[in-house]
Amino acid sequence: MSSLDPAATSGQSADQQAVTGEDVAEGTSLWGEAWRDLRRNPFFVVPVLVIVVLTVMAIWPQWFTDMVPRSCDLSRSADPPQAGHWFGFDRQGCDLYTRVIYSTRASLLIGLSVTLGAFAIALVLGSLSGYFGRWLDAVLGRIADVFFGIPLVIGAIVLLTAVADRGVTEVSAILILLAWPPMFRLMRSTVLSVRESDYVQAARALGAGNARVIVRHVVPNSIAPVIAYATVFMGVIIGAEATLTFLGAGLQLPALSWGVLLSSPPARELLNTPHLLLFPSLFVSLTVLSFVLAGDTLRDALDPKLR
Description:
By secondary structure, this protein is an all-alpha fold. 67% of the residues lie in helices and 0% in strands. It has 14 helices and no strands. Helix 4 (42-59) packs across helix 5 (96-132). It is elongated, with a radius of gyration of 25 Å.
């Protein structure tokens, strides 16, 4: 008869106990493993911190400056950076640092609105197309192909120039209309691979209806790649808004965004006043880079093939 050694049974190493406790606390799901990796990855942590700071800046800009963005002095038009005015002044004599800070709200709001709108469309249509297939998949796929064939910036220029008053709502609506197909395709392809899984077949065998199967089983197991892509997508949209406004087809004054600031100085004056272009473009580049890096690392963490 074999006997158990009390020292062996009760003497698990502290490392094993710590690992077991961590697994119980965080779970062994894909999201739990991804979070365990992401929080130790500087290429995720640093961009997320930058995004948090920008979000706070957009919600409470007065925490970062005590000046008013529309308080201007034409005698200081296009003055270079100086003590107390670190970004200098724009062509209207407004403090450029203050205007850059207050422009964060519109730029992030457009990025968030378009991302959430495209995500919602992709979630619903992609789930239905991938799960039911057949004629529904064919119809939705052809509709997506029509919009997918329109270049985002060119299509937005054509549609936005037909709009008299271009504010955050109008720009966001046009970009949502043109930008949802790539996310839809990703959601559809993921659902196609999930719908034949054993747990989906088991749910069907137990009598679950299509709506319950989609909501409880298909979508939760298909959504991770779309979330990762949406993070990158938001950075792309922020850059697209700045581009459209710079080209004269985006937001209009009195709205304030980084694109508006980039479009205000005439090209012939940029060599003499480079700060008018430098500081808004730095904020655009930093924001886009942060979302792209965060999205890339999130995608890698959620990809089971890389584990």
